[in-house]
Amino acid sequence: MSALLHGPSPGAENxxxxxxxxxxxxxxxGLRLFAVYGVIYGxxxxxxxxxxxxxxxxxxxxxVAVVWGFGLIILAFVMAIVxxxxxxxxxxxxxxxxxxx
Length: 101
Description:
With 101 residues, this protein is mainly alpha-helical. The chain has helices at 20-50, 52-56, 64-88, and strands at 58-59, 62-63. It is elongated.
């Protein structure tokens, strides 16, 4: 069962701790993206509960509920990629001259 023990990744003890300003920026970005997704998902849930006629409408051979559901899944993947890309960007004033990116 030792494979299930959690700990730092190999070599992590040699890495410097991440800048708290970068952590705060990334957290704010993650919360904003989560809020956007939450609003879109909330509209989906409310539409499913209170507008069943709209969700039954056929669109591209399937109903709106299925299309919207798959759209939510795709949106989650796209938002994860966007989050990862934006978090990889250095902050102004935190990168040393000549440091590799």
